[in-house]
Structure formats: structure tokens, C-alpha cells
Here is the input.
Amino acid sequence: MTTMQKDRTSVLVIEEHDLLREGLESIFRQQQDFDVVASTSSIKEAFKKVYKIHPQIIVLGINVDFEEPEVCSKLIKKNPGAKILLLAPPGKEKVVADAFKRGASGCVLTNVVTEDLVQAIKMVTKGQMVLPDNMAREALVERRSKPRNLPDLTIRELEVLQLMANGLRNREIAKELFISEVTVKTHASRIFKKLHINNRTAAILHAYKRGWIQLS
Here is the structure.
């Protein structure tokens, strides 16, 4: 692997439709920031590639018959450091919401323009959550029209959670709150334990749904 390749974000494309998959590959290969390390039309084959190649980003196409959001948790189990960006058609709100609970980091619609797709991957790479404009947020999380139970979280934990939702990493949160990175990790661990959740994205959605934090 060359130095230039090491500096790029490695991408695995999973899409059953050949035309769409080849189109995605072409888009990513035209970008200096991305390196398409593999692509496949098979989830089964994807598991093998994820375990062997360890891509940083997994672009997962959701077809109209896709009803297995647990695929996301299985992919992350094979490669814990990976971020998953879903490519979904309109009308798959429930499946997408379930996939987020299982570790997906972002979602764009199949009619997304190239510039927005590239930007979405860059945001997901930085740890930010990406939701499609057309697939309204209320489809992924309930509207906050009713009063919700107050969280069993401290003020500091809520601050950490809000900064997570803003897309900040642990080091950036530590700098923002004038605390150590170790302390940030401790707060995050306590948040996950209290909410019975094991990843940032699920915690952010859980908190937003209950009106505890804001999404920009």
C-alpha cells in the first residue's frame, strides 16, 4: 500500500445491483480522499471482506426487500472501527431507524447527488451522524410533542452527550469542557450504561427522541 493510499479513507461498497454498485465505485475512485478497497453484491461475501480488509467506511445499499438491520451489528462485530453509511430508497424509515440502533452511522437516499454523498461519507468518517433531508427526522425518532421523563443523567453527562451529537470526538469534547480525555470516556461509559446502549449513534437518537439534546 502506498503512502497516498494510507492517507485515504478506505471504503467497502455493498450493493446488490451491479449498475448502482459500479456507479458508486466510480464516484469514490474519482475522489482523492477515498480508496475503494473492495465491493460486493453479497452480504455473506461482505462479512469475509470486512474481517480481512478492515475498511474504515462501509457503504451498505438497502434494496426494497431489505429487512435485516441486524446486518449492521454483525458487520461492526467483524470490524469494530468501521462506520456504516446506508444508501436507502424512500419508504424504508423503520428499517433505517432499526439499523441506526444497531450501529449505522448515517444514511442517504438513493437519489442523492454526488456532492452530498461525498460530504456524507466525510461527515461519517469524522464521527458525525448523517440523516437524509427527505427522510424526515420524525420518521427515525418520535416527535417531541409530549413531555418526556427527565433523564437519569448528570448535567455533565448531558453536556458530553450534546457535544457527541454535535460531532465532536473525545479529544475535542475534553478541550471544550476543560476536562481530560479519560474523563470524557468515563462519562461516555456511564451514559451508555444508564441508557442500556453500547454506541454513540444509538445514545444520540435515544436522547434526541426524548428531547434531552438538539440536533443541528
Observations:
- The chain is about 50% helix and 15% strand.
- The mean pLDDT is 83.
